[in-house]
Design a protein that fits this description.
Layout lengths: L10 H32 L4 H14 L1 H24 L1
Helix pairs in contact: 1-2, 1-3, 2-3
Keywords: Membrane, Transmembrane, Transmembrane helix
Protein name: Phospholipase_D-nuclease N-terminal
C-alpha cells in the first residue's frame, strides 16, 4: 500500500509546524512594520518602541502579539493626541 502523504513519517504535521513557526515571525515583523509606519504618520514620538514591543510579543507568542496589536489600535488616537500636545 502506498502512503497517502509521501514517504516522510509525519509529513503533514511537520509541514504545519514548519508553517506556523515560519508564519508567526513573518506576521509579527509585518505587523511591527505597519505599526511603525502608522505611528510615524500620526506623529507618535515613540513609534519605534511600539513596533519593537509588538514584534517582541509576537516572537513570545501569537496571542501576546495580537493583544499588543489590539492595544495599539485602541490607543493610537490618544497617542497621536499626546504628540500634538507635547
Amino acid at each position: 500500500m502506498v502512503p497517502l502523504f509521501g514517504s516522510i513519517p509525519g509529513g503533514p504535521e511537520l509541514l504545519i509546524i514548519f508553517l506556523v513557526f515560519l508564519l508567526v515571525p513573518v506576521l509579527g515583523a509585518a505587523v511591527g512594520f505597519w505599526i511603525y509606519r502608522d505611528a510615524k504618520g500620526r506623529g507618535v514620538p515613540y513609534a519605534p518602541a511600539w513596533a519593537v514591543g509588538t514584534v517582541a510579543l509576537f516572537f513570545a507568542g501569537f496571542i501576546p502579539g495580537l493583544l499588543a496589536l489590539a492595544v495599539y489600535l485602541y490607543m493610537r488616537e490618544e497617542l497621536a493626541g499626546q504628540a500634538s500636545v507635547a
